[in-house]
Amino acid sequence: MNKAFKNLDEVTIRFAGDSGDGMQLTGMQFTSTTALLGNDLSTLPDFPAEIRAPAGTLFGVSGFQIHFGSTEINTPGDACDVLVAMNPAALKVNLRSLRDGGIIIANSDGFNEKNLKLAGYESNPLEDGSLSRYQLHAVAITKLTHNALDDLGLSNKLVERSKNFFALGMMYWMFTRPLEPTIKWIQDKFKKNPELVEANTRVLKAGYAFGETTEIFAVRYEVKPAPLAPGRYRSVTGNEAIAWGLIAASVKSGLDIFLGSYPITPASDILHELAKHKNFRVKTFQAEDEIAGITSAIGASYGGAIGATTTSGPGMALKAEAMGLAVMLELPLIICDVQRGGPSTGLPTKTEQADLLQALYGRNSEAPIPVIAASTPADCFLTAFEAVRIAIKYMTPVIILSDGYLANGAEPWMIPSVSSLPDIAPKFRTDPKGFQPYMRDERTLARPWAIPGTPGLEHRIGGLEKEHITGNVSYDPENHEFMVRMRQAKVDRIADDIPPALVEGDQKGDLLVVGWGGTYGAIRTAVEDKRREGKSVSHLQLKYINPFQKNVGEILYNFKCVLVPELNLGQLARVLRAKYLVPAVTLSKVQGLPFKAIEIENKIDEILGSTR
Amino acid sequence: MNLVEDILKDAPATPPVKYTAKDFQSDQDVRWCPGCGDYSILAQVQRVMPDLNIPKHRIVFVSGIGCSSRFPYYMESYGFHSIHGRAPAIASGLKIARPDLMVWVATGDGDGLSIGGNHLIHVCRRNVDLKILLFNNEIYGLTKGQYSPTSEVGKVTKSTPYGSIDHPFNPLLVALGAEASFVARTLDRDPKHLQTIIRRAADHKGTAFIEIYQNCNVFNDGAFFKYTEKETKDDNVVFIEHGKPMVFGKERDKGVRLEGFTPTVVSLKDGKYSASDLIVHNEKDTMLSFILARMSSIPDLPRPVGVVYAVERPLYDAEVSKQIQQAIQKQGEGNLEKLLNHGETWAIK
Fold first, then answer.
1. Is A288–B336 a contact, with Cβ atoms under 8 angstroms apart?
2. In total, how many domains does chain B have?
């Protein structure tokens, strides 16, 4: 049967089901196949904190959203065009993210009495007409999966586990994607179990054939490749990119990575990734707690490794005292905070940007630490690399801020050539002549890195205040103030060593939207949309938050208004107001979810006045 | 070879000269209270160091917070005075990153068993190759006299004016419970014994835990006098030695014998019992080690002093290095280009 093809510039699909339904896997397979086709894309995994919440419940729904297109894609999409719902709970939780007129593909077999009741439906929405605003396709996915496998003699449980591949096959048909990459993946993943290879492949093909042969779907869609810059690409998540950025810094500096870390969502994948790469001499140490995570890393840095620790908000709080120690010791150290909803345990699997002030100020006394933030999953790579460069050159701890959205989200990444990465050149002190532990490099104000094992440099360091140059314990009032100012001056000086901030859009105008970290994509999309409408609005995304780049003030003063969208109650805005005395306006969102572009666009309209 | 190995490749592996204790005295003025037991511990450590035949640039002392934790400042080696309770974790990171170093930890009963208790037990179970000196004075000295996790029930201090109701830790049992591979007890006021035990710890491969009874003459003077002073020591301490029966007493006329699992004191004078009836100490006997450690909590029994337990098991830091060497052998040295390009990639033209 010939079906009509329709070209689309961009599409957003959300796969939703029980947390045991394999929706994350389905979404990731769709993502890698789509990436291989050359589309630009952005993803948003959205899963519960419970590992296997009771089946059919609203809080057990796991979702995976992918936005892909033939144009530049910067966000996971504001509203979905297609919602795949494996049960009533998945439909109920995700319906609000579907645009009017959007497509619902529902597994009608999942809409039994028990599941409807669990989701709080009085009647079956697939039958009662309540979904008339959407294009509803009810498909008996479970039954069709059974049919495809009935001669294999598999247990019911195994058959049911394959049904996500049926849904995936249908979506591959609908959006004209090849099956081969996923078939290859299945063969690799289940190579020890040929029965599962056969079952999953068959079900995937059955889903594809179902789209092809049934009358249900009148059209299928094509999304042409995006005009990405030429090069070799791969898909990467933020957590992978942090791990690889640290490894790259290890290769480029000749130093080993030591990661001291305690498992915590959503940062654990960095530990998992680094633990795989022992042939890079990476040492990962799963510590007994967050404090041992950072203090073991400090011990390793003292010994001449790149000490790193990864965590999320609650762990950051526990590490605060040790960060102060690292400030006092003036040793390189990487602290990576993958932010999640808080306070306290908060929303472990959801994203937020509310640890900014904690990163900047969350320590006793004057304890300045450079803070840099990654803006996209792929940007996590260079952010980690840059953090190591600064840490080693300035002998200082550096905080990397990522977030749950960046950590688990994926995007296509043009793989950098290793030779394009700058060398990092650690300077270990070896000459005992004239050595003093707290003497300083004139330019960077860094103290020497004098590691144990070096003959003639035996010395003592610690958390007590140090006397300038000698490093002896000192309670002298003037020396204390001098050293407090010295530590601050050293961090401030980094501003001379980082590239200037770049405005996207005009350099002057009515409104500047200033973001930091993971809001990059949503702000970029919103500002570009408004610029196309002729609005005088530009975008500045800050990577360096302590210290700020030197031209930030100048940029701010070139605009009549400054808007700061943040996934917190206005933390960066507070810092900008204090430092630059600009009346920055805050756009807050604290729902555990990233911004939608439309939310930022509405705020831009509100400030500039709608001109349409 | 990484950069660290490269810059240290010519550093001598043995001392360039024959050291004396003086070589291990730093230029810092020692600031413990006059009469403090810490002075003796420092002096004995400095006396043992030259015998180890390890160059001082390869030796690191790491400490936490408290009187004992000032220790690294006074040692002419590498030293790291850190934050409260965290020395075992810092030392673990250092030793794992740099197995070529000899790493010591100086800690106290508050630092090691209260705020840092978690790190202490995990170091022991992992068997990181660290030498831990726990100065036990049963009091908080640096904060001026509060009860500690080893203070006895009923102890009147500034924070327990009506007497402590906390049941104390037995440091040996904590270390044994965490499966430390070397557990010993010694006395600040017995320099010879202290030196022997420090030397044994230095020679041990793995976590070596030493509890040192240390007198705080300002806030808890005489806490251990029963075990350290001439008049009472012989009748209240049994010095244990591997393969030897547990005989004690001024006249060497008493012994410790097991009745069931319960140690009891017997007299060797009346001919009823002889040395062959007594416990023969075996450092490798796990069950016996618990019985000996438990003796501290039973009144009327002498305190065992010496090496309670010493066995060998795999070193954590060495195992980490081994896994790395195996990975390199199997997969080859890490190749960044290959890492970034592994798995699915695609070209855009």
1. no
2. 1
The predicted structure's pLDDT at residue A610: 58
* Domain assignment present for B201: yes
* ipTM of the complex in this document: 0.98
Report the CATH fold assignment for A503-608: Rossmann fold (3.40.50)
Question: What's the gap in Å between the CA of B15 and the closest CA on chain A?
Answer: 10
Residue B331 lies in a domain: yes
Contact A452 B58 (CB under 8 A): yes
Nearest-neighbour CA in chain B from A23: distance (Å): 21
Tokens describing residue A388: 């190591």
pLDDT at B72: 97
Contacting B residues, span 33-92, partner chain A, CB-CB under 8 Å: 55-60, 62, 65, 72-73, 75-83, 86, 89-92
Residue B279 lies in a domain: no
CA atoms within 13 A on the CB side of A316: 32
- What string of DSSP letters covers A298-363? HHHHHTTSEEEEEE-HHHHHHHHHHHHHHHHHT--EEEEEEE-B-STT-BTTS---TTHHHHHH-S
Query: Given CB atoms, is B116 within the 8 Å cutoff of chain A?
Result: no
Across the interface, do A458 and B76 touch by the CB < 8 Å criterion? yes
Q: Give the gap in angstroms from C-alpha A517 to the nearest C-alpha of chain B.
A: 23
Write the residue in A36, A253, A458 that is nearest to B57 by C-beta: A458
Cβ distance of A300 and B28 shorter than 8 Å:
no
Confidence (pLDDT) at B348: 85
Task: Give yes or no for B347 touching A (CB within 8 A).
Answer: yes
pLDDT in tens, A370-400: 999 999 999 999 999 999 999 999 999 999 9
Q: Domain holding B112: CATH number?
A: 3.40.50.970
Look up residue A606 and give its two tokens: 């509100």
Q: Based on the number of CB atoms within 10 Å of its own CB, is A182 exposed (0-12), middle (13-18) or buried (19 or more)?
A: buried
Q: Identify the pLDDT of residue A2.
A: 61
What is the interface size between A and B, counted as CB pairs within 8 Å? 235
From B97, B323, B340, residue closest to A415, measured CB to CB: B340
Give the mean pLDDT of chain A.
Answer: 95
Give the pLDDT score at A319: 98
Largest CA distance in chain B: 100
Q: Which of A450, A455, A225 is closest to A330 using CA atoms?
A: A450
pLDDT for the residue B304: 98
Q: Which amino acid is at A180?
A: E
Q: Indicate the fold that domain A4-222 takes in CATH.
A: Pyruvate-ferredoxin Oxidoreductase; domain 3 (3.40.920)
User: Which one of A248, A278, A299 has the shortest CB-CB distance to B92?
Assistant: A299
Q: In 3D, which of A275, A18, A366 has the Cα closest to residue A164?
A: A18
Locate the domains of chain A by residue range.
4-222, 234-420, 503-608
Instruction: Name which of A268, A267, A325, A266 is nearest A291 in CA terms.
Output: A325
**What's phi and psi for B136, nearest 5 deg?**
-100, 110
Contact B72 A225 (CB under 8 A): no
Q: Does B142 touch chain A (CB under 8 A)?
A: no
Amino acid code (one letter) for A277: H
B328 at A interface, C-beta within 8 A = yes
Tens-place pLDDT, residues A209-224: 999 988 778 889 999 9
B40-96 per-position pLDDT tens digit? 999 999 999 999 999 999 999 999 999 999 999 999 999 999 999 999 999 999 999
Does the pLDDT at position B112 exceed 90?
A: yes
pLDDT at site A612? 43
**Contact present, A368 and A488 (Cβ < 8 Å):** yes
To probe the interface with B, which of A37, A259, A295 has the most B CB atoms within 10 Å? A295
Q: Which of A159-163, B122-126, B238-242 has the lowest mean pLDDT?
A: A159-163
Q: Please give the CATH architecture assigned to the domain spanning A234-420.
A: 3-Layer(aba) Sandwich (3.40)
For residue A238, pLDDT over 90 is answered with yes
